[in-house]
Every structure is written in structure tokens, then in C-alpha cells.
Write a structure and sequence with these properties.
One of its GO terms (molecular function) is enzyme inhibitor activity. This protein is mostly helical. The chain has 6 helices and no strands. The chain has a single domain (35-53, 60-192), classed as Invertase/pectin methylesterase inhibitor family protein (Butyryl-CoA Dehydrogenase, subunit A, domain 3).
Amino acid sequence: MASSSAAPLLAALLLAFAAAAAANGAPAASDFIRKSCRATQYPAVCMQSMASYGGTPPPRSPRELARAALSVSVDRARSASAYVGRLCGPGGRGGGAAGAGPVRDCLENMADSVGHLRDAAQELGGNMGRAGSPGFKWHLSNVQTWCSAALTDENTCLDGLSRGVDAATRSAIRGKIVEVAQVTSNALALVNRVGPGN
């Protein structure tokens, strides 16, 4: 009888211990994220995007944080691409006949950006080999190259909108793409912090 009454008490103590451990780990994780975000070009955007990431447990290493940032970038790029697709599709306000080409070009650039970011996230999340080895450096170089290519695609989209697209459409698309470019820039900065042991 004594052992059956001890079981609920033991379970309650374990739950309390787990909750305290999680609470103690959260400030350390958020301090790590805050300090890491300071190294990016858009620290406030970095903090906001990592808060919206919702990964459990929160990232605790440079590699985990970079992968989370890439995941956010993929999601934002997909969302922006879908938005541009709606503008350019039937019934969309793609800027009329003159603006349809630049908006379609932007859509293609964003599709490429999504692919590059997805590839970068998969590469960073895979087995990169022993930290510091030639294989690790090769995988990390791939991730950096894909992030840079995604940024180039996003900027190419923005540049193309300056010709033949009405002001309202250009402004609407620009807002979405600038947001994606900022999180992608931050992701690249965090990827650049990944090194041996991370």
C-alpha cells in the first residue's frame, strides 16, 4: 500500500523537476539566440523570426540555430512565392501586359530561392562528417553557396520589378521579398558562424 501512494508523489516530483529544468534551460537558450542574432545584419528580424520558429527544444548550438533560421527562410520564401503567384495568375493584378513579364520573372526567381534554401537546410541537417574535416567544409560551403544564391534570386526579383510594374503591385511584392531577403541574410550570417564543434 505504501508503494502505491508513493507513485503519484514520485510522478509529481519528476514533473516538477522537469518543469524546473525546462525553465532553467529557456533563459540560456534565449540568451544564446539573442547573442547570435546580434551578429546578423537585421538583429530584430532575427529575434522575431526565431520567436516564430517554434522548434522544440529551442536551438542551442550555432548549427541548430542556422538550421532553424534556414527553415524560417524556406517558409517565408514559399509564402512570398505563393503571394507573387497569386498576383501573376488569372485575375491577379500583375501590372497589366507590361508588368506581367517582370512579375513572372520574379515568381521564377522566388521558386529558385525556395529550392536553394530548401537544399541548404537539408544539407545542414544531414551528416556533414567530422567537424573540421574536408567533407564537413565541403558541405558547409554548399550551404553557404545556396544561401548566397537564394539572396541573389531575391534581389534579382526586386531589381526586375523596377520596370513596367505599377506602383501598387511593385510595393506589395517588394514588402514580401524584402522580408524574405532579410531573413535569408540573417540565415547566411548564422550559417557563417557554424564551424568545427558546432
